[in-house]
Write a structure and sequence with these properties.
4-stranded mixed sheet, rod-shaped, 294 residues, mainly beta
Length: 294
């Protein structure tokens, strides 16, 4: 005596779903792709990320797309679920992601290329961009450094001080993120010209040599008499040569200027009445008889 029945073997069914990462941390503003893996009755696993229904328990903290892409919105803990409808009912898996404050994603230094004359200083600014898209001035928070301390130094507040002619790189770093730029230090530049004259006035017909001194950005002073352009504002009273030699023509005051590029210095020369320079007696020599006059 026997009995018979038919058993239909169905495809392996999903028994559980696991989500990776199981847990993690994400800075505000960033995104991360979750992956849903289904385990079946036959022990096999399969990726069901695109088939699962994704939900976020706390969308104010982090949202999730239909494809499992999460985006961190605000700080806190966010729970996500991936669900699949199986023969036995709905099967789901969950994961928790901690959203941390926005992190620095890049640093921009302004100006990124700086050129200074020797002796001058320059202020750098560092602006950080964060993972949530916000920006912040971090000039006083960043750690500043230079690649060539012999050429220039950079203070804790981003102030560049030149030391010698040359090139150097500079960086600003904060929380593992670094921005960079380049510096070129050129020869000291002229900042002022002043004229030295040996006396207050000059008699008509006389000549007076003036001297021009230049002050530079590195604090040095050089004789620039022969490299400046000399002019007289009152050539009727006094003229001046290319080498700074003044010749008195007529009574009055002459304004004398020495110019180099955009820098100039001015002085006043007073032309005085002609002065006695010598006395001669005539006859130079002679003969006179006793008792006579001459």
């Amino acid at each position: 005596i026997s009995g018979t029945t038919s058993v239909t073997v169905l495809p392996a069914a999903i028994t559980s779903i696991s989500i990776t990462p199981v847990s993690g941390s994400l800075a505000m503003g960033l995104t991360e792709q979750l992956v849903a893996i289904a385990t079946k009755t036959d022990g096999a696993t399969t990726d069901v990320t695109s088939q699962a229904t994704w939900t976020a328990a706390t969308p104010a903290i982090a949202t999730i797309s239909a494809a499992g892409l999460i985006k961190a919105v605000s700080t806190g803990n966010a729970i996500f679920a991936a669900s699949i409808t199986a023969l036995s009912g709905e099967i789901s898996g969950t994961t928790t992601v901690t959203v941390s404050p926005a992190a620095v994603s890049s640093i921009a230094i302004s100006p990124s290329t700086l050129t200074l004359a020797l002796g001058l200083t320059g202020q750098l600014q560092a602006v950080a961009t964060y993972t949530d898209g916000s920006t912040q001035d971090v000039t006083k928070k960043a750690a500043w450094a230079t690649s060539n301390a012999a050429v220039a130094s950079v203070s804790a507040t981003g102030l560049v001080a030149t030391k010698s002619i040359g090139e150097a790189g500079f960086t600003a770093s904060l929380k593992g993120v670094t921005g960079s730029g380049t510096l070129t230090v050129q020869k000291a530049a002229l900042t002022a010209v002043f004229i030295v004259q040996p006396g207050a006035g000059i008699p008509i017909g006389s000549a007076l040599q003036l001297t021009a001194k230049g002050t530079y950005t590195d604090g040095s002073t050089l004789d620039v008499t022969n490299s400046v352009a000399w002019t007289s504002a009152s050539s009727g009273a006094a003229t001046i040569s290319a080498g700074g030699l003044v010749r008195a023509i007529a009574l009055g005051t002459a304004s004398i200027t020495a110019t180099s590029g955009a820098i100039s210095g001015t002085t006043s020369v007073t032309v005085l009445p002609a002065a006695i320079t010598s006395i001669s007696i005539t006859p130079v020599s002679g003969s006179l008889a006793m008792g006579l006059t001459e």
